[in-house]
Specification:
Blueprint: H1 2-37, E1 43-49, E2 52-58, E3 75-76, H2 81-94, H3 124-128, H4 139-145, H5 156-164, H6 179-193, H7 197-206, E4 227-228, E5 234-235, H8 244-247, E6 250-251, H9 253-264, H10 269-277, E7 282-283, E8 288-289, E9 294-297, E10 302-309, E11 314-320, E12 325-331, H11 336-351
Helix pairs in contact: 1-11, 2-6, 2-7, 2-10, 9-10
Length: about 350
């Protein structure tokens, strides 16, 4: 009987190892093929399956650099920051600092004064699932003012002005992607914890998970990629400011796989919070939304994902809790179509 159990354990190990190798090789083949067709776009990919990590990368840190991109190369993860912020909001729920169904009125910093039509209407979960109806930051105008650092002119005063001058929620309860919503969530976190967003994300995510190559205010490191806009022009990394909670964290494939490992595990604060974010808070004929997460469901799978685009880089993170896999794709060029095509090909050919 003992020999039978030993043989079974060996067979299971071989099967799992073979699957992991096959998984890795197929994804590497897809990424390599994409790079050969688009040699101007550097790519770093990390994936985790049944607690085993795999990485692949192609390209240079910049057009002028001789250094290869690898799993530790720094990218802007852009709006993937939003799932970190929503995880912090869910941790605040667990810490009993707030409730998702609470109205935002009492959580806004001093200076915000909601119009009578807006009072006791917008919930914290509405902000986190993009259905608050609040006006958003005008990125088109900001890009015209400063194409390298468009958010540099966004201040607390300018945000207060936008909110205080809003007297109607024209599409409350309907999905409309909102940078404003996640900026406000960052300010709400600061109020309930009495600390800066930077301090909060370090204390609750970056430090406990030992994400040593994930940066906030300071990110001047040797292995930083250079981002390129769709026309091929070099783009600066966005500097840290009040919109940080909506999209200003910088990270790499290795650290984002560490994050995926944490949320796919059980019994840790980040994973417990992730379970809250995975509940459906918005649904229409086109989409289902958790807190900061898009939810995609077919007959066999439920996938949680979030994409990000800065002025010069594109990224996407995706995971399947039931099947215990996840991956991160980082591109050093703003190309949402390429990012989406890679996601689709990996899912259809490897993961589905």
């Amino acid at each position: 009987m003992k020999n039978s159990f030993t043989l079974l354990a060996v067979l299971l190990f071989i099967s799992t190892f073979s699957f992991g190798q096959n998984f890795s090789q197929k994804i590497d083949s897809i990424i390599k093929d994409n790079y050969q067709k688009n040699p101007d776009v550097g790519i770093s990919v990390g994936f985790i399956s049944n607690n085993k990590e795999y990485y692949t990368a192609y390209g240079k840190l910049s057009k002028e650099s001789a250094m290869n991109i690898d799993k530790n190369s720094l990218f802007e993860i852009a709006s993937i920051t939003k799932i970190l912020t929503s995880n912090l909001i869910a941790q605040a729920v667990i810490d009993k600092k707030l409730k998702l169904e609470d109205y935002i009125d009492g959580y806004l910093p001093k200076g915000y004064h909601l119009h009578e039509n807006l009072k006791n209407k917008i919930k914290i979960s509405d902000l986190a699932s993009h259905q608050s109806g609040l006006p958003d930051i005008d990125f088109g105008k900001l890009i015209e003012l400063n194409p390298q650092q468009p958010v540099s002119s966004v201040t607390e005063e300018s945000l207060i002005s936008i909110i205080n001058n809003c007297n109607e929620l024209i599409d409350y309860g309907k999905y409309r992607y909102s940078t404003m919503g996640y900026t406000l969530l960052g300010q709400i976190l600061e109020k309930v914890y009495g600390k800066s967003y930077d301090e909060i994300i370090h204390k609750k995510i970056i430090s406990p998970l030992k994400m040593t190559n994930t940066f906030t205010k300071e990110f001047d490191v040797k292995n930083k990629t250079t981002g390129y806009n769709p026309n091929g022009g070099a783009q600066e990394f966005f500097k840290w400011n009040i919109t940080a909670s909506a999209g200003l964290v910088k990270s790499n494939a290795s650290d984002m796989v560490t994050y995926l490992r944490a949320i796919l595990a059980k019994g840790n604060p980040v994973s417990n919070a992730a379970l809250i974010t995975e509940n459906i808070y918005y649904k229409d004929e086109k989409r289902e939304m958790g807190l900061g997460l898009n939810i995609s469901t077919d007959d066999q799978n439920t996938i949680y994902l979030k994409s990000g685009d800065s002025m010069g880089e594109s990224s996407i993170i995706c995971y399947n809790r039931a099947k215990n896999w996840g991956f991160i794709i980082l591109l050093n060029k703003r190309d949402s179509k390429m990012r989406q095509n890679l996601l689709n090909e990996i899912y259809e050919k490897v993961l589905k």
